[in-house]
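Notebook entry, structure prediction.
Reason for the run: the old model in the group folder had no record of what sequence produced it. Starting over properly, with the input documented here first.
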Amino acid sequence: MKYNVILVLSTLSILSACKIEQDPESRGKTSFYFPNMSNTTERFLNTEEVGIAKRICSSLKKKRFHFETLSNNTHSFRAVYATKTCTQSTLSAEKSFVVTLDNSNPVDMEYRSTDIDFNFKDVLTDQSPRVKEFCEELEKDITKVANTFRSNLVTYTFAIKSVKKGMFYDRLEILKRVPSTTTPNTLVVQSGDAYEFYTKPEQAENKFMGLEVFKERYGTCENPQYFSTYKETFTKPLTSF
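New structure, fully documented this time:
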């Protein structure tokens, strides 16, 4: 069943605890993982992951091509968000806000809002710095694609999966790590992002392919056993696109 202009609303889950889950083997070494995100070690993607990743990158390219054709600052979405700071134990109540597409710079498109100062301002496409090299490797159709790429001093590790929320959505998780300022030759986690997309024709019209249906961001806190959380869900477009 295709969706015309009404998009599926994903349910925001409430976290039951505020401590970071941590792998005893990796504690104090290169990484830990956030709730709802995979604890990903550096490796090659398996066959199923490659298929999902190719679908995601293809959809992100379609989104980039389509968004580039739209008039600047004239197309909007409605979304809801919830947050949790380093000192809170649960997510806040959901709040609604309006997001407008700013494509004045085609290589660095942004979502903007006059309602709130929100996370995820960048429009994720196949050319975004975090995924550009990853998507380019997938386009080469090589048999071995790594789940980890490095850009300058930043290391990005990806987890690829399909998650069921009414229907199956393709999900991309990105763990961002940087060199430790106190321990030589050690990477420390800076943040963890996750996206779920429209990637299939039965989910939405072609013009919505690559749209981020659900996004979440985890950030580190001064106390390494705790984390901050931001979750955002697009609910529907307010213009025709």
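Summary: Helices lie at 47-68, 132-139.
The old model has been moved to the deprecated folder.
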